[in-house]
What does this fold into?
Amino acid sequence: MKGRGIGATLGDYILHYKTPTTPVIQRDLLGVTGNIKRGGTDVNVAYGIPRGKFHSLHIKGIEGKQGPYQLTSPEGEEDIVIVSRTETVYLDGFLMKRGEKNDYIIDYSLAQLIFTSKRLITEESDIVVEFQYTKIGFRRSLYSTRVDYKKSNYNVGCFFIKDGDEITQTEGFELTKERKAFLASIGDDTTMNWMG
It folds into this structure.
């Protein structure tokens, strides 16, 4: 959305802050950002989470096995989480539809694909899955604010960026209340940092 001196983006965007001599940060994010320009002042505020990494995986079908077929990263890692609703599944070149009453189901947290009985899999089946994924761990987020003031002969600016893990939001695993309490109780003493 854009108006006179005001702009906002909701969804996918690229956050790019730079100084006159070097870029400071560039991130592909999913979230919201807004700009206001008045006089010589330019203010930007942004919040977002990193988008998943894109991968296209080719799987050869196994005779009589509807699934689960494990989706992996380009490096073959299985401990990934599929970003919800980013997958596109092709079977023998035909686009499949998600759903128990359709062609396949997918477990995003386990990164596993299962075909329904509508689509029988054989050793001749060619399966291609395109998806975005993240690593198992804590969800990351970014908050930022930038203020620039420009006059004809000078430019002054500052910015604040917080880019890190959201310790209350996990991807691919959930901590019970008991484990969260245990982790909070041990503090920074690494000799105590063991869970059974």
